[in-house]
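Our collaborator T.R. sent over the components below with a one-line note: 'Predict the complex.' Nothing else. No constraints on interfaces, no templates requested, no preferences about which chain binds where. So this is a plain run: every listed entity goes in together, and whatever single assembly comes back becomes the starting point for the next discussion.
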Amino acid sequence: MPQAELLPGTLDLLILKAVSLGAQHGYGVLLRIEQITGGALTIEQGALYPALYRLEHQGLLDTHWGTSDNNRKAKFYSLTVAGRKRLETETHRWNLAALAINTALGVEEV
Amino acid sequence: MSEEIEFHLEQRARDLAARGLSPEEAGRTARLEFGPVEKYKEEARQNLGLRILDEISADVRYAFRDFARNKGFTFAAIATLTLGIGANTAVFSVFDAILLRPLPVRDPEQLVVFDWLRSPDSMVAGYSGYGRPLRLTPGPGAELGIRTSFSALTVERFRDHNSTLSHVFAFSPAPRPNVVVNGQTETASVLMVTGEYFDGLGVGAAIGRALSPSDDRPVGQPVAMISQRYWQRRFSGDASILGRVIQVNRIDFTVIGVTPQGFEGPLMSESFDITVPIGMASSLNQQQGAPPVSVWWMQMMGRLRPGVTREQAAADLQSGFVDTVRESWDRRSPNTPNPARRGIPTLRLQPGAQGPDGPRIDAMQVIGAVFPVVAAVLCIGCANLATLLLVRASARRQEVSIRLTLGASRWRVMRQLLSESLLLALAGGIGGSVLAFWGKNFMLWLPTGDLPVVDTRLDWRVLGFAAALCALTAVAFGIGPALRATRTDPGPALKSSAQKGSVRRGIVSKALLTTQVAISLVLLVGTGLFLRTLHNLSKVEVGFNADNLLVFQIDPTVQDDRPARVFDLYDRLVDEVEAVPGVDSCTLSAMPLIARRQWEETVQADGNRNPGSAFMQVVRWNFLETMGIPLVTGRDLSAADTQGSSRVAVINQTMARELFGDPNPVGRHFQFVDGADRDVPIQVIGVARDCKYSSLEQQVPPTLFLPHAQAPSRAMTVEVRTATDPTSLAPAIREAVRRIDPTLVLADMKTQRQQISETIGGPRAFAFLAAVSGAIALLLACVGLYGVVSYDATRRTNEIGIRMALGAKRSNVLSLVMRQTIVVVVTGAVLGIGLAIAAGQLISNLLFGIQPTDPLAFASAVVFLLAVAVLAAYLPARRASRLDPTQALRYE
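Returned assembly:
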C-alpha cells in the first residue's frame, strides 16, 4: 500500500475525528487513525502526544483515567462540545480547500 | 505523562509481538516508531501550558546566581526588609499588648470606666484605691489627681437609676487575703465584685455558673468563682472543683464556677484567682468591717446601651452623682469638725475596653507616640528598598537592553525581574518573622517596670501588613523601572552603556533619601528627649539614702492576726535580721517608698479649719534613722512610744507648712477625720526633712509617720540597711526570717534602687523604643546613602577619570562626589528639625524636667546624624577618589 506524508495541520483534524467515534486512550487513537485512513498515512507515533496535550489545553478534548481492554490503567480522551464543533468547522474547511485544490489540479471529483 | 507514554510503548510492543516479533525486538521497534521521547514530552508540556513553570524555575536559578554576584545589594535589600518587617512588628506587638489589647469580654468597646478628678476641696471624706497623677510634669494642674474609686452610694445610685447604661458594676481587690485550701495557706489574689459584674462584662463560666446578683448578699451561703488559671494551677483542672470549699480570711466559700480561659479580672496589671461577692466585704475584714459609705473604695464600670455615647451617659448620671457625693459627705464621721468643703469632683466616663487601670488615660498620647514611630521606620524601610532597587535598575539597563535585542519578549524580561523582587521579599519576610519573634522576646526580657504586660502574642496582622507593604514596594520598584527600560528602544541604551542614568531617577532617589534622613532625625531627637528624661529622673533627690538597702514585703496575718502577736512577731523578726552579719539595721514601714503605692487620709490640724490630705506611713521607731531621713526639728520616734503612751507622730516639712502653716509645729496636734483612729488627738513630736513618697516625678506630699506600736498594721515592708552589697545578704536574711517562722511568705525582695528604677519603666520603655527605632532608621538611611553614593560614583567613573587626567586632585573628586550627598543630608536634617518640633508637642506629657524643644537633644541628634551620614557617604567617595585615572578613562 502506498504511504503518504501527513500534511501539516491535519493531525489535529484526524485526532478529533478518531476520538469523535468514542473515547480512546493515546495508543487507541493511533490505531484508529491507522484504521480509518486505511493505513495510508504515516505518523511519527510520538508526535501524537504533543498534539493530544495541545487539544486538551485548547479545551477540545476531555480526559479521564480508566482501564484499557487488557485491564491496564490508561488515560482516555473524549471529545468536548467545543471539540465537536471544531471538528465540524474544520471538516467543512478541509472539504472546501480540498475541492479548490482538486479543481485547480484538474482532478476528477471522486 | 510518562505513564501514558510508557503505556503506549508497551501496547505497541505487544501488538508487534503478536505479529511475530521477539519481545526485545518488539520493544525496540516500538521505541523507534515513537521517536524521541523527551522531545515529545517537552513539546507536550509546553502545549499543556507547563512551560511557564520551567521558565520560572530558570528565573529563580538565575536570580540566585545574580544575588550571589551582587552580595552587597542583596544583603542591603534583605537587611532592609528584615528590619522593616521584623523590628516594626516586634515593637508594635509589645506596645499593642500594653496599650491596645482589650479585656477578653463581650463587646469591650461598649464598656465605660468611671473616674473623677480630685481637687483640694472635693467633698470626699475617705478614699481607698488607685490613683494617678494627671500630669507627670510639675506645673498647673499637677495637684489634680485622677481617682477611680467611688462610694457604695454612687454605685447603687448609678446601677438603679439610669437610662443610658445596661449594666453598672463595681469591684475592689481584697487587701492581702488569707486563702486556705485543704488546710494549706495559699498565695492567691481575691477580687470582690458586685452581683452584676459577670453579667455586665458578658463573661460566663467555663464550667459551673458565674456569680449573679442573687449571690451578692451579706447573708446566706458564701460562694466564689475561681479563674481558669488558678483552677489549672492549684486543682490540676479537676472537674470536681464545683462544690469544694476555699477559705478566705476564715470564711468558707463554696466554689460555683470557673471563669473562661484568658479572663482574669478587669485589671490589666493584676490577675485575680478568686472572685467573691462584694457583699462579703464586712465579713472578710473582721477587724474593721466593710468601709462606711463615706469612703470611696469601689472601682466602677458600666456598659453603654446600644447607640448611647459616653457624653450622653455622663449627662444622664451627673445629677445622681452630685446627690450621692453630698450624701456620702454628709454621712462621714459625726464628730469631725465640719470643714467648709463644697467641691463636687468632676465625673468622667472613659473608654472601658481595657478596664480601669488600662493605659486608657494616657493611651491616646502614647499611641500617638508609638504609631508614628513604627510607621516612620516602616516608611524608611520601604523608601530605602525603593532607592536600592532604583539604583539597581539603572545599573541593569544595559543587561535588559541586551536581552531585548537578542529577542527576549518584554513580558519574559519583566517576569524575570519580578521573580527577583519576589524572592527578595520572601527572604526579607522570613527574616522579618524571625526577627519579630526574637525582638519581641528581647523587649519583654527588658524590665518594663510598671508597664503591665499581660499577654504578648506576635501580631500577625501587623506582620502581614508590614510584609505586604514591603513586598509591594519590592515589586513596584523592581518592576517599574524595568517596565520603562523595556519600553525604550534598546539601541540608545546599549550605546550609552551604564554610565548615564536618567536624571529623573536621580531626583526620585534623592527625595527618598531626604525623607529617610528627616525621619531618622525625628527619631534621634525623640531618643535624646527620653534619655534626658531618664537622666533627670535619676537625678531626682529622693530625700533618703537609697543605697545598700534591701526591701521585701511580709504579711504575718496568714498565721495569726491578733495585733499583739503580730507586733511581737515583727519585733523578733527585726532582732533576728539585725543579728545577721553585715546588716546595720532593720526597720519596718506600712508602705514601701517610691513604689507607686500610696495611702492617703484626711486629717484636721489644730488651729486650721480646713482639713487636708496626708500621705500615711506607719513605721517602726527606727525608720527615719535607718532610711537616712534627717530630723529638722523636735525628736524622733522612740521605742518608748508604745501602745500605752500618748499618741505621737513625726510629720514632714511639707505637712508642717501646708497643714499647720508653721515650720515648727512641734507640740501641736492633729486628728484623722475618718477611720478607727478618728478624733483622737495626735501630737507632733518632730519634723522630718522632705522625702519622695510614691514616685520620683510626684512632688513631695504632706507625709506623716506614725509609730507601728501605736497604729498596728498587719502587712509591712521590711527595709534592711546593709554595710555591703545588699543582694549578697539576701540568702542570709531569708534564712533569718525562716528561723522566726518557716511559713512566713517573703515577697518582692529587691534593692531599693531596683524598686525605684521599676517605677520609671514608662520613660525607660519610651527611651528604648525611640532608641531602637532611631538606630534602625539611621542604619537604614546609611545603607541607602552608601548605596546611592557608591552607585553615583560608579556611574561617574569615566567622568572622574577625565577630571583626574585634566589635573583634578583627590580632594576635588571627593568634594564632587560628596557635594550632592551633603545637600541631601542637610535638606533632610532641616526638614527633620521642623518635624521633630511638631512631633515633640505630642510627647510633652511623657517628658520630665525638659521641654520638647530641648536644644541639647536637638543639637546632639543633628550632630550625630550628620556625622554618621557623612561617614556613610565618605567611604564610597573615598574609593572613587582613589581611582587610577588611566583605568577610569577606559571604564565602560
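Summary for T.R.: Chain A has four helices and five strands.
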